[in-house]
Amino acid sequence: xxxxxxxxxxxxxxxxxxxxxxxxxxxxxxxxxxxxxxxxxxxxxxxxxxxxxxxxxxxxxxxxxxxxxxxxxxxxxxxxxxxxxxxxxxxxxxxxxxxxxxxxxxxxxxxxxxxxxxxxxxxxxxxxxxxxxxxxxxxxxxxxxxxxxxxxxxxxxxxxxxxxxxxxxxxxxxxxxxxxxxxxxxxxxxxxxxxxxxxxxxxxxxxxxxxxxxxxxxxxxxxxxxxxxxxx
Length: 232
Hints:
Layout: E1 2-10, H1 12-15, H2 25-38, E2 42-48, H3 56-68, E3 74-78, H4 98-114, E4 119-123, H5 142-158, E5 164-167, H6 169-177, H7 181-185, H8 199-222
Parallel strand pairs: 1-2, 1-3, 3-4, 4-5
Helix pairs in contact: 2-8, 3-4, 4-5
């Protein structure tokens, strides 16, 4: 039986921090893809090469083993919520500068495509409840910084070819919340977190990203563009 490999490469949003494993959007995606592929006489192998607190700089350090050696056909990439943060110990410098963040995403994509990945799904990040206090040594909130990095993600996606698909999570969350902070907070874990998705937020992630993955899988199946089990 032929197989399609799907890998997630991200931070705590892909890990599903603070929610039960079975409620995470990545786990739900894996279960649904397994059934979908089976119905098409194919096997979906889904792996999650994500880590809590990871920046794009750290991601590039582990990418050779966690992604390149696995040679997935589809890679879902989600970073930025750690890159955009300003730690007190850094005295006004972000964990990863905007310029470096863009370059890191470009390199992650280039490396993925060089190692057999046929589709990269690049996610922006959802809005958070950290919009009322400024970060150390800055005059902006965490949410304002995250919005800037989301725009960088869009710009990186826009200069790629059709092998890269943008999943605009931020836009979908804003639409779902209908512009109200109260409805947005329902999609996030309660205080003091206000950062990670709640179970409802994970469900929304699934609704946004799963159709893009399924469509990519179906394109490979119908085009007979997926490899056999000959890969090492």
